[in-house]
Fold this sequence. Notes:
The structure is a single chain. By secondary structure, the protein is of the alpha/beta class. It folds into two domains: 4-45; 53-189, no CATH class. It has six helices and six strands, in the order αβααβαβαββαβ. The two termini are 51 Å apart. Residues 44-49 have low confidence and may be disordered.
Amino acid sequence: MTPPEEMEGGVGPLPEGGYPVPAPWTGLVVGVGLLIFGMMVFGGAGGTRSDLQQVNVADVLSSGTLPAQEYGSHDIQIVGWYAAIIEGCQGTTESGGGKAGWLEADCPLRVLLPTEPAANASQADLLRAGLRLAAPDNKPFPPPAPPGSGTAGLEQLVFQGHFDDATAASCSAALLVECQNTFVVSTYTGQIK
Length: 193
C-alpha cells in the first residue's frame, strides 16, 4: 500500500491535510449535493404524498355528530373491518332509472365496522354497528367475505372517499340523511398507514 505522502493528485489525504478534488469535478460534486438536498426539502411538495386525514371507523361512529356534518364532502381515509352481504341481502337493489339509485340501494350491503363482525351477524346488526359504504360503479370494493371472517379473514382496510356526495341531493326525502351519511368510496388498500 502506498503511503499517503506519496500519492499524486486525485482524492486522498495530503501531507498538509485535506482532500483535494480536481477542479473539473468540484462543480459536479456540489451540483449533485444540491440536487439531493433539493429533493429532500422540496420532494414532499409533489402530488404523490397523501395528506388525507385518516380516522378509525369507531371515531366516526362515536363522534356524536353525523359524518356529513363532521367531515363534509372532503376526501378522507377511514380504517375498519369490511363486511358485505351480496347473496340473501334484504331490501332494494340499485334502480336503473334514478340518478341516485346506487346511493339509495340497500343491496348489496357494504359496511365498514370498528371490530371484526361475528359469524352470525345479521344485516340489521351490521347496519347498526357499522358505517354504510357505496360507490357509483361498485368497483372499488374487495370481494365479499362472510360475516365472522372479517375482511377476507385477514386485516382491516383503509378506504378513501367522502361523505355528503353531490348525488345525495337527488335521493328521496325519506333517504336524504342516509344518503348524505353514506361513505362514497373511491379506492381502498390493505396497508394500514
